[in-house]
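quick one before i forget lol
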Amino acid sequence: FGRNVLFLLGTQLAVVLGLIRDAHIRFVLLPFALLLLAAVLRKPTWPRMAALAAVVAFQTVVSPETAFFIPACFIVLGLYELSSYDRGLPLRTNFRRTLGTSAAGLLILSAFFLVLAALHALDDFLFFYRTFAPDHSLTGGTPLVWLDTRFKFAAIAPVVLVILAIWFFAVALRARRSPAVDDWVMAALAITVLLYYPKFLARPDIHVYQPYAVAVPLLVYAVYRVVTLLENRTAHRAIRVGNISLPTRHWITAAALLFVALASPRDIVDTASDVPGRLSATAHNEPVSPRLGYLSPLATDLTIFSDLERTLDTYLGPDDRLFDFSNNPMLFHFMLDRRPSTRYFHVSMAIRKDTQSDLIKELERRPPKLVVFSSSPAFGLPSWDGISNQVRHYDVSQYILDH
């Protein structure tokens, strides 16, 4: 936001007062990737390109659905260097940002794949992309219900922002005007939103807030550009209060700041008075599981963990395996440390008929000693979109019941 400190203050006020409340934890490293992309565009040094590649690679490995940023990043790098292409220079010089970041990324991913191969996990890692990623979005669609104004805005805003971004670059191209580095960075975000938005189209419910959360910086930047344009047009004017002449440089920003303060869901005075309570840390109970840490007593019934542990110890030996049909991988495979009988540690990965058949083959090859067939809605994901796992994964369910 340049030197417009008032606008920066307004963005933070919008967050604190609840006007901007959509965040997507899966994209937690995206802001750092955007900042590093800006750094690479300004000055393509090897440390910067390696850092960009490392952050993008790490983000994608931890959360595969963030892979949409990879093509967005390289499209922007390529187009940015193509816009300043010099025929007198060799290709590696003209595209040093794209080639350098690609080389660093390939080196990092190669090292990661070698580690997976050494752990005999490479095939399973790639298997997820082949099996789950292409199928998940189109198998849980529910009828579109326009819930409220917030929902409508979250559904429409990303589309409008992507169209505006395309229009902005089309106008710049026609006028032979080179966009600023900030514009190019926001272009990468616009492409990410474009690629990610079909998640809402396939699952037209509250999933809309996930692509919208990624679009929030783009929305704020669009507002900033409009405000800056208006302020630049009125910069030569001044407002007189008595004998004092006040410049109008950031009066529009100040008006927007006032709007944020008045239109936000929370009152600024109540929010400020509540701050001391937010800074006091309280541990209600000792950790039930050392791996999980402290829990709020309202989080869940703490006795169920000890009950489950006793049940599993009764029926399973140290080397016996368990098949969880209730989608509770954190509970059974992480907290209670019971090994899954198949690589489908989350049964929702077996959606298509051929993947269900593959899961059944794994159950036949390594029969589990115990099956968790169902659970209450309070634990795991025994059903989603109104369809229970026993119905959605019909072949697997039938095999378990038969055997």
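fyi The longest strand covers residues 238-241.
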